[in-house]
Write a structure and sequence with these properties.
It is a single chain. The protein is built from two helices and six strands; from the N terminus they run H-E-E-E-E-E-H-E. It is of the alpha+beta class and 130 residues long. It has a domain of 90 residues: 2-Layer Sandwich (Alpha-Beta Plaits), CATH 3.30.70. Helix 1 packs across helix 2. The protein starts with 26 loop residues before the first helix and ends in a 10-residue tail after the last strand. Pfam families: Asp23.
């Protein structure tokens, strides 16, 4: 007979939830959550990466995250589709990042600075649109 997860009892020696320890989430993970969330919003684009004038692929949004005890400060750089409503797209990006960081990591966003580093027309068939 198997028990449902709610019916499984912890052994008597198991510490209370408050005494089990803490979960630390590395700032790199928080950065990746923010970048992925921004990349999923319609109207954001990947930008071309070039080294010495040679095309070396694409890069998505770039974020820098500073984490505190329960809040984060995020600085985000991204490229948007043109023509498109920039304010609405940036508002959607802000909302998505705040929701994903709260849902996945339990952090609230204290500040979120967005820099739109480029506006590009609709990409060719081979490029990805987000």
């Amino acid at each position: 007979m198997t028990l449902a997860p709610a019916e499984v009892a912890l052994p008597g020696w198991a510490p209370d939830a408050d005494e089990r320890g803490v979960l630390d989430i590395a700032p790199t993970v928080l950065r990746k959550i923010a970048e992925y969330a921004a990349d999923q919003v319609p109207g954001t684009l990947h930008r071309e990466r070039r080294v010495a004038g040679v095309d070396v692929g694409e890069a998505g949004p770039r974020a820098r995250v500073a984490a505190g005890a329960d809040a984060v400060d995020v600085r985000l750089e991204l490229t948007l589709l043109y023509p498109a409503p920039v304010r609405e797209t940036v508002a959607a990006v802000r909302s998505r990042i705040a929701d994903d960081l709260a849902r996945l990591a339990g952090y609230r966003v204290r500040s979120l600075a967005v820099t739109v580093s480029g506006l590009r027309g609709a990409p060719a068939e081979t490029a990805r649109i987000r």
